[in-house]
Design brief:
This protein is an alpha+beta fold and 378 residues long. Helix content is 51%, strand content 15%. It is built from twelve helices and nine strands. It has a five-stranded mixed beta sheet with strand order 3-9-8-5-6. It has a four-stranded mixed beta sheet with strand order 2-1-4-7. Helix 2 packs antiparallel against helix 7 and helix 3 runs antiparallel to helix 6. The longest helix has 33 residues. The protein starts with 8 loop residues before the first helix and ends with a helix.
């Protein structure tokens, strides 16, 4: 879920450490002179090349500004090829993407809002990287997974919407978190379309100037903070179904590659570090741990599909990732009685020391997960 960067009291103790690990672990690069260097500031986005060969393209970003920034690479139709969020002032990050020949735009987003400062990028060649049948199979299976998550989200959200439209606050509260699981598992793919996420999953602090607040979090506020459902909320519930149906129909057209899968897995951990661990994602419902678990599950699915290829190139990395996924999942199990269910402790009942423990668990997984893309594409 995309929102403006802001910090709570807890962030000073734990989430800053999470952000440092998330961004810092990406500073090393094996791309050498082949990388596109991006100098981002509050007013500029300078790229070292305006043209590059198709295939694996690495972007090395340095944030020279005073605001947290993001890097996006866009298709001409506005879909997202790849992205890197939460690049703090004075820090560096890198990301690799498989890019086909064509015309693209590189965007830096100081303050993580708006359309960003954009530069044109021309990708030349004959069609990009040739992949092994093993990696093609991984992509095909992941496509099935993201489609299944979208398909399963619609009926769960319909239960939520029906409760809202019936004016049944308690039933709507019960259906809220389950309706979000499929979205949270595959959020980087959902966000790649650019126009769906702002309508369905924006928090109030992430609204652009003049943007109408719609989607899950607007209804979350009505249910938990206002404790009432009016005509406007009923209309917003119908709109949520419409927007998610659009996602379900379009998800099969998403650009998915082995590197986008690996980068997406890391993005899901970034989501946890910057929203769920801090308690900012579900401000009113405090169902953050449900989202947390779904993000980890989505990251693990992408990893497991890529693991056979990664294990050939870097067996030590896959061993480390196996260990850290188990450790983080075991830690999350402390907060639910049924290890197969999704009823987690309300996050407002989780104290600062426990949140720090969760943050440390995320960091321990995020660091090796940042190396998955390189292992897959060796």
């Amino acid at each position: 879920m995309r929102s403006a960067a802001r910090f709570t009291v807890f962030t000073a103790a734990a989430a800053v450490a999470a952000l440092t690990a998330v961004t810092g672990c990406a500073q090393k690069s094996d791309a050498g002179d082949g990388a596109i260097k991006v100098a981002a500031s509050d007013t500029a986005c300078e790229v070292s090349k305006k043209e590059t060969p198709a295939g694996k393209v690495q972007f090395e970003v340095e944030n020279k500004g005073s605001k947290v920034t993001e890097l996006y690479v866009y298709f001409p139709d506005g879909r997202i090829v790849t992205e890197k969020e939460n690049i703090g002032p004075g820090t560096k990050a890198s990301i690799t993407a498989e890019i086909k020949p064509g015309d693209y735009e590189v965007a830096c987003k100081p303050g993580m809002k708006g359309d960003g400062i954009r530069q044109k990028l021309k990708v030349t060649g004959e069609g990009g990287e040739k992949r092994s049948p093993e990696l093609d199979a991984a992509v095909a299976e992941y496509r099935k997974y993201v489609q299944a998550q979208a398909d399963e989200t619609l009926p769960k959200t319909q239960v939520f919407v029906d409760a809202v439209k019936a004016g049944d606050v308690e039933a709507a509260k019960k259906a809220y978190a389950p309706s979000r699981i499929g979205w949270e598992r595959t959020e980087p793919v959902a966000e790649s379309f650019g126009d769906i996420d702002p309508k369905t999953d924006t928090r109030q602090d992430g609204l652009e100037a003049g943007q109408a607040w719609t989607g899950w979090h607007r209804l979350e506020k009505a249910l938990w903070a206002d404790n009432k459902i009016g005509d406007e909320e009923k209309k917003l519930a119908d709109q949520l179904i419409t927007d998610l149906t659009d996602w379900q129909k379009r998800v099969g057209t998403a650009e998915i590659t082995p590197t986008s899968m690996a980068n997406g897995a890391k993005e899901l951990l970034d989501e946890v570090a910057t929203g769920k661990v801090t308690g900012e994602e579900e401000t009113y419902s405090h169902t953050d741990l449900v989202d947390f678990k779904a993000n980890v599950e989505g990251a693990q699915k992408a990893y497991e599909l890529l693991k056979p290829a990664a294990a050939k190139n870097d067996p030590a990395l896959t061993k480390q990732l196996d260990t850290q996924f188990v450790a983080l999942n075991t830690l999350l199990d402390k907060y639910r009685a049924d290890k197969n269910g999704y009823e987690f402790t309300s996050y407002d009942k989780v104290g600062a020391p426990e949140r720090k423990e969760l943050s440390d668990g995320v960091n321990a997984l995020a660091e090796p997960l940042s190396k998955l893309a390189a292992a897959v594409t060796k």
